[in-house]
Design brief:
single chain; alpha/beta; Rossmann fold; Tyrosyl-Transfer RNA Synthetase; 2 domains; binds adenosine-5'-diphosphate; binds tryptophan
Amino acid sequence: MTSKPVLVSGIKPTGDIHLGNYFGALRQFVEMTNKGEHECFIFIADYHALNFIQDKAEMQRLTHELILTYLAAGLDPAKVHLFKQSEVPAHTELAWIFDTITTVPYLMRAHAYKDAEAKGKEVSVGTFNYPMLMAADILLYDAAVVPVGQDQKQHIEYARDTAEKFNRVFGETFVVPEPKIVEDVAVVPGTDGQKMSKSYGNTIPLFASREEIAEKVMSIVTDSGSDFPENVYAIHRLIKSEVELAEQYDTNKGKYKALKEALIDDLDAFIAPMRERYLSLKNDPSIVEKVLEDGATAANEVAQVKMEAVRKAIGVSE
Ligand code: ADP
Ligand code: TRP
């Protein structure tokens, strides 16, 4: 292992990746890991996804899509260990240990749990414990930074509290991690102006074809009472500078169709190189297998050393 600070993050394979995922999470992964300043672990949170996806074929499909996405979006396996959470058993083992030092009232304060409760859902134990599995994901690697979207901030707080609690009870073992949230793209709006989310049906897929982009952009809701299309601009702003846009939006004041057409061109140009990489990787499954195998080997090596220290600290091994 190098002495570089560690970066850890992950995405659950629960749906097709959209621009919100890209600008809220993936792009930061790519930028931060390519700088070479960190030892990087980026994983597919398949055991987190199991709370939502309970269908073998769908789990396999979404997992495969996510690894293709990681690679197509620009994560370089020479600079980042890419792996599946389920291939590193220490994640679930450590989550159990954290469960034993965590109280029910404390977990009941988690937003995800409260939202599910408020909707009258019967919450699974896995959903309830979600923050402890996530704490394990992060703390196993001594992560210093965890790039995430705004909605994950509370989960990082849980990981920090859990590290501190463990260290207090069993002695200094874990590093207390920091979240890294890019403020100006903290929430990417969807075609209806709400947060872009697969749950709202307002997404633009990351590898959309030009036709799909056109269809989605044309469906962006615009307020007929104003001459400025807020929702078009909010997406445009992610891929073009304010200065360039100011001129374009000024010249085309009130012309929604022209502005939407400009957004289609810009999005297509932005997405095209990623889409090409995605399509070519799709035809070469052996690359993907090799990346995941190497990633799991590297992750297991680090995780096992940490687990030995943890087992000693709690007194189950000498
Ligand atoms: P979804 O809302 O579509 O279900 P997920 O919850 O699976 O997306 O999110 C995966 C990652 O993408 C998380 O890190 C999350 O913070 C980020 N993310 C998702 N949607 C957005 C958005 N609209 N704006 C910014 N980040 C987002
Ligand atoms: N909970 C995160 C999400 O829904 C995914 C995730 C799981 C994660 N474990 C993690 C993110 C560890 C960062 C670090 O997006």
